[in-house]
Amino acid sequence: MFVIGGSGCATEKLKEENRRLKESNDRLISENNRLEEELAAFQKKSAEGTVPAAPAESLVAKASDTPPTPKSNLEDELLIDPEVKVSREKDGMRIMIPDRVFFALGQAALTARGQSVLQKVAKLINREYPNKVVRVDGHTDDTPIRKVRSKYPTNWELSTARAVTVVRYLVEQCNVNAHRIYPAGFSYYRPVSNGRSQSSKSQNRRVEIMVLDEKA
Q1: Which of 20, 170, 183, 185 has the fewest CB atoms within 10 Å, counting from its CB?
Q2: What region, left, alpha or beta, does residue 30 occupy, with left being phi > 0 and alpha being psi -120 to 50 degrees?
Q3: Is-contact 108 165, C-beta < 8 A?
Q4: Which residues pair with 87 in a beta bridge?
């Protein structure tokens, strides 16, 4: 059984990234203010007829050449897929994927889209978190199993089978270290929505990949 630690290095890394981004943003604001002052001065002189208006255009061009603020790692993480949600939790990083991205209804075989998403997730994990423990959580809604009951008697079996499928793909196809990843199935006992609508049920059918702040 794993013991989940504090935010540790991941929190410090995010703080450092935020500090660098703030410094860069402050420099850009200062430069923009300076250019605006120069532009206003040129426009005033131009109106007085002391200098031609052309230099003002060059100032605008100069401002447009300012390099963009670099993206943080978290912004890169958010580009995995439009439906994938990435968040920082007290025990690590959570990547939440709706079941429709990975599986057909009542099935545990990965879709082509699901495989593509996992390849991106694996690159992130292997690049940014090579020594962290990864837990893959399978979740269902509370609709009883009917059509595939012979294969998955209850939602326990289905949620666990889906988590195992994801783990196997990450290990066998994406080179995630098998010694630091494991599956868990939670059936419908950890919902994110308590509503009875189809939309609420859809929110509860999901896979969560937790990159824990615990080293393998």
Answers
A1: 20
A2: alpha
A3: yes
A4: 94
**Both structure tokens of 73:** 């790692």
What is the strand order of the sheet 206-215 is part of?
A: 85-89, 92-98, 206-215, 132-139, 181-185
Q: Does domain 73-215 have CATH number 3.30.1330.60?
A: yes
User: Residue 17: pLDDT above 80?
Assistant: no
The residue ranges of every structural domain in the chain are 8-64, 73-215
One-letter amino acid for residue 95 of the chain: I
Lowest mean pLDDT among 51-60, 73-82, 153-162: 51-60
Report whether 163 contacts 139 (CB < 8 A).
Answer: no
Residue with tokens 């604001």: 29
Q: Compute the C-alpha angle 102/199/212, nearest 5°.
A: 50
Distance CA 162, CA 172 (A): 15
pLDDT tens digits for 147-202?
999 999 999 999 999 999 999 999 999 999 999 999 999 999 999 999 999 999 99
Helix 8-48 with 54-64: angle, nearest 10 deg? 170
Q: Which two three-digit tokens encode residue 200?
A: 């609420």
Helix ranges, the chain (H): 8-48, 54-64, 73-77, 99-102, 112-128, 155-172, 198-204
**Which residue from 80, 180, 145 is spatially nearest to 162, judged by alpha carbons?**
145
Q: Using a pLDDT cut of 90, give the percent of the chain over it.
A: 57
Residues 11, 9: Cα–Cα separation, whole Å: 5
